[in-house]
Fold:
Amino acid sequence: MFGAHDGFPPALPKATHGEGGFDLLPFRTIRDAIGDIRLNPGAHSSYTEDMAAYFSLVPPGGTWRNLPLKLQKEALGPAFESGGGKTGFFRRLDYDGLAPTVTTKPNRKGSAMCHPEFVRPISVWECARLQGFPDDWKIEGAMNQQYQQIGNAVPTHLGKAIGAVFASLLQGKTVPTLRPAPRLEHLLEIASARLRRSAHNKRGKTGTPDLFRQLV
Structure:
């Protein structure tokens, strides 16, 4: 969400990657990001024996929903009866898919980021790759602190795209802006005017529509 003190806020950067557009580059997959370090991932956390047993039954791109119903209840515990999609529970990444939001605790069952191929959380280095950090950047601290720093970070390419918009503004360049959305009152005025016209045209035949009477 962009804001501006004076005038209209700048528009979001245009998409550079996607599907169905001739001028868009293809999305980078998880394989593109971490496939080359699959056998040399660096430091990573691990699962308990019980959690590893559940993850071994989840296919690439799957979650807890791929477990048999009995094991779903067993694996999730009280969370099974809670609301929400619980899409992060026992989630295994897919080499050919896109990365979800990188979490600060990929070894936890509720924010899991299991490797597509191996039964382990993705490593610190793999998390950094998914966030777009260059390989020569060094993350300090204990392993859990490194995971947290990377998970809390803004993906570097996203930060660059947003920063470029505001850099142009600060340099006095003209950038596309967003016009404010119509006010609710204005939308109601438009709807009321249309109903009035419709009621005027139909009054001679069917009387005043109930919906019109409710609005006026």
Summary: The radius of gyration is 26 Å. The domain at 30-167 is CATH 3.90.120 (DNA Methylase; Chain A, domain 2). DSSP finds eight helices and no strands in the chain. The chain has a mean pLDDT of 87.
